[in-house]
Amino acid sequence: MNEFMEFFNNSSSDTVSTSVKLLLLLTVLSLAPSILILMTSFTRIIIVLSFVRTSLATQQMPPNQVLVGLALFLTFFIMSPTFSQVNEQALTPLFNNEINLEEAYEKAAIPFREFMSKHTRQKDLELFLSYTHAERPATIQDIPLTVLVPAYALSELKTAFQIGFMIFIPFLVIDMVVASILMSMGMMMLPPVMISLPFKILLFVLVDGWYLVVKSLLQSFG
């Protein structure tokens, strides 16, 4: 009887341990996409594309699915050199049992650190370093990811809003011109947005706006 109870307790302990590990694994997997998005070019791209749609005042055109899909493929295109390095330096040796999981994590973080450090402002990086009271890192690889990732995300937000501001200006000018013309004609009850929308779409098409926006995004990561 005592042997049975001891076996039952050991089995229960193993079951609980496995359940906890499985729960932690599912939690990490659910957070992985969000973490990966913040470590790539996706944040800047999707914000700029959203600014384009807002400045055009086309409501849900293009739809969210189209914008997110375009942002994802542009992200894969921009991040392809980084992903290739991760595959060569970390994933392939891991699958070939040449390195363990911890070594693969350290090797995979190197290309991401190099990419994020190129587009992170010194001011944002110093903000998080000063908050953690950490010593100034000697090299890029010495910067903890817990510091580099939020600093990079903050820098991306500022860059994206700067690009979005430049996109807004020409469309704002069109809105102001149309509103002034309508007021001078005494048509105060007619919404200026209704009249300016076709002109904004026409201008965007004539200058090949989507090409210019995507080109600007690619050059910003050059």
UniProtKB/TrEMBL annotation:
This is Flagellar biosynthetic protein FliP. GO terms for cellular component: bacterial-type flagellum basal body; plasma membrane. Belongs to the FliP/MopC/SpaP family. The chain crosses the membrane at residues 20-52, 64-83, 160-182, 194-213. Pfam families: FliP. One of its GO terms (biological process) is protein secretion. PROSITE patterns: FLIP_1, FLIP_2. Plays a role in the flagellum-specific transport system. It comes from Lederbergia citrisecunda.
